[in-house]
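Title: [Solved] Ion channel protein Tsx 3D structure

Original question kept below for reference.
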Amino acid sequence: MTLSRTFLVAGGLVVSSMTSAQTIWSSNSLTYLKNTSDFEVLTNDDVDVFTLEHASGHNWGDAFMFVDRIDAKADANAPTHKETYGEVTARLSLSYALDSKVSYGPLKDVFIAGTYEHASISQPNFSTGFDNYLIGVGTSWNIPGFAFFGADVYQANNELTDNDTQLTITYGYPITMGKHKVMIDGYIDWSSSADDHAADFHFNPQVRLDVGNYFGKPNAVEVGIEYSYWHNKFGIAGIDDESVVSAIVKVFL
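Solution (posted by the thread starter after getting help):
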């Protein structure tokens, strides 16, 4: 069975499980990001990113999706790099599918996990894009202090590069001190090397302050910073490691 066929079968399992689906929680947001230093590879010093994001928890598992719209250029006179990138992830809980709790100690649940990645990129006289499909096993963990902590291992079917293995860790750590509410969350991605690309590592945390909480409207508007550290970005070996701090504003819809 090919990886894409496996992905479709797993997707079918998720869809079939939704016949009795119940939404436990959901969150939708729009984020604006502005870089404060150059991005590696494209050497862009003027980058604007708008991100539309959805996350939800269900009795059958959880779902996460986002779409980035990126406009970037090296300087005021340079051509604009335009990119739309998005991901859709769904994880089917084995506890739900088997009607029996799958947990042990801090291990909260185990999932069949699938992710679809899409990119559409355009520059003057150049355009490209890709569709990647990932299928694997996910886990969620009960770790003191964390609102959530997950680790997923995927086999990736990449359209433009050789297939590889990916590890994704997601986390959220809230801090409350009186009226001050801070969320530290983000992800860590590691992808294995293949014949045509090097292994890469991406550490991408955000630290956001809930400013709406000061006005009696918590979980409405957050401001903060995002840090992006990327070793061998896009699997390109030999470039300098990317290390970028960006300012962000996140509005919950």
